[in-house]
């Protein structure tokens, strides 16, 4: 479903070139999940932007399906570190923004998704009236409103408290299993990577190169955090990050 081949990304001119990502290659099947983990500032977000088509690689390529990514695609949704909500628009209008931009609103709307995410009773509120957890859920609703085949997430739960973070991780897991989209997560949180990624790629300091890979195929049950397999994956990730 997603194939990256020797992905390399530079910023700046040839005289002042800064390499952010170097030689990253991977393959991810349809409806599978992948987590990238590495130090802060290593180039994880740049890598995700290349997968979304927002950045053109300096070298190498990205394919989704059999088609080379040459720009943003309507079947690919991106959730950023903050919810990115428009403060002057209600929950309803923020959730439907992707459909508006795609020209699909009002023929389609995000009502069912808002209800599924427990936001149906706050759809007339503004972002300033919401908790941080609710804001993140509105961002999820907006991403899912276009029924993406690929969901890309850039540290979407950063700065949340532990319990809220775990509840939304559970939500991501349930949505991924129910809807069958391909999931790519960028995080610096070891346990988040272990809970959501069937495959986990460990990246080096900038420029981001592949330092190691950890297979984590037992991902899926909501009680996975309490399993021995989860503990083994967390331990393996710590060892990869520290070596």
* Basic shape: globular
Task: Tell me the structural class.
Answer: alpha/beta
Low-confidence stretches: none
**Separation, N- and C-terminal Cα atoms:** 31 Å
Features:
globular; six-stranded mixed sheet
Outline of the structure:
This protein has helices at 44-52, 91-95, 97-102, 111-116, 132-144, 162-179, 190-196, 228-242; strands at residues 2-11, 18-28, 33-37, 59-64, 67-68, 76-79, 150-154, 182-187, 199-203, 210-215. It is α/β, with parallel strands linked by helices and 243 residues long.
Task: Describe the protein's architecture and organization.
The protein is an alpha/beta fold and 243 residues long. It has a domain at 1-69 and 182-243: P-loop containing nucleotide triphosphate hydrolases (Rossmann fold), CATH 3.40.50. 33% of the residues lie in helices and 25% in strands. It is built from eight helices and ten strands. It has helices at 44-52, 91-95, 97-102, 111-116, 132-144, 162-179, 190-196, 228-242; strands at residues 2-11, 18-28, 33-37, 59-64, 67-68, 76-79, 150-154, 182-187, 199-203, 210-215. The strands form two sheets. The chain has a six-stranded mixed sheet, sandwiched between helices. It has a four-stranded antiparallel sheet with strand order 2-1-4-5, with helices on one face. α7 (190-196) packs across α8. The relative contact order is 0.19. The model has no long low-confidence stretch (mean pLDDT 91).
SSE map:
Blueprint: E1 2-11, E2 18-28, E3 33-37, H1 44-52, E4 59-64, E5 67-68, E6 76-79, H2 91-95, H3 97-102, H4 111-116, H5 132-144, E7 150-154, H6 162-179, E8 182-187, H7 190-196, E9 199-203, E10 210-215, H8 228-242
Parallel strand pairs: 3-8, 3-9, 6-7, 7-8
Antiparallel strand pairs: 1-2, 1-4, 4-5, 9-10
